[in-house]
Design goal:
about 0% strand; mainly alpha; 6 helices; single chain; Ferritin
Length: about 160
């Protein structure tokens, strides 16, 4: 039998993703010397922290109402499990042990993280309560902006 995700599970994953993203950007900030890149990663870390707080608020609101299964469709459920296991988690050992990073490599990692975040949010959007979708839409918009900023920064390097 396939494990079903509840809206609580989805929100916990979203919170975890945002907290991991914040940690990721703080580590990247510590690994670069270029001031404009440090500022960009600092800004992105603050944004990811704010997203985690937003998802925690949504979590506590719907916790009062009771959580429901989010992925009743077995095929969709399998897909989400596989995606979360393969994409959401960052290889922290590699990230922290590696001491020499080129700028393009760092930006590619950050771009991939933002793309993965967007994919996750699009997948869970139908299962977020209607009243909270406006908030999720705003977070998606901000994640797209992060992707744009990183992509433009990378273009400026080339």
């Amino acid at each position: 039998m396939v494990k079903m995700f509840s809206s609580a599970d989805l929100l916990e994953m979203a919170i975890h993703l945002e907290e991991e993203s914040e940690k990721f950007y703080k580590i990247l900030q510590s690994k670069v010397e270029k001031e404009d890149l440090k500022r960009l990663f600092s800004y992105l870390a603050v944004q990811e922290h704010a997203h985690a707080i937003t998802f925690k608020k949504i979590y506590y609101e719907i916790e009062k109402e009771g959580f429901v299964s989010a992925y009743p469709d077995e095929e969709a459920n399998k897909y989400l499990h596989a995606w979360v296991e393969s994409q959401v988690f960052i290889d922290w050992d590699e990230l922290t042990k590696k001491t020499v990073w080129n700028k393009e490599e760092i930006l590619d990692l950050a771009i991939r993280l933002e793309k993965d975040s967007l994919l996750f949010y699009y997948e869970v959007e139908p299962f977020i309560p209607e009243k909270d979708r406006k908030i999720l839409s705003e977070i998606i918009k901000q994640e797209k902006d992060h992707l744009y900023q990183l992509t433009e920064f990378k273009k400026g390097m080339i």
